[in-house]
User: What shape does this take?
Amino acid sequence: MGTLYTTAQAAEAATNWRRLLSAGAAAVTPTTIRSWATRGHLDPVGLDTKGRPLYAHADVARAEVATRRRALRLVGIPEKTR
Assistant: This one.
């Protein structure tokens, strides 16, 4: 299955990806990860020993890309200029 992240670890990984791709853009917080899960952008693949959701590396990456693209589209930045 690959690397699994807790909510906090998923937020850290998504922040790192976002900053690499967009020159220091805003951080992804654990609240954002929970929001992505609530909105159906990110599904947990299991639970850790404390009952907290775990997210797959690839799923976190897909959710980050999808939500970043949507955010850029909403502020009027076309896909081809990114």
Remarks:
- The mean pLDDT is 82.
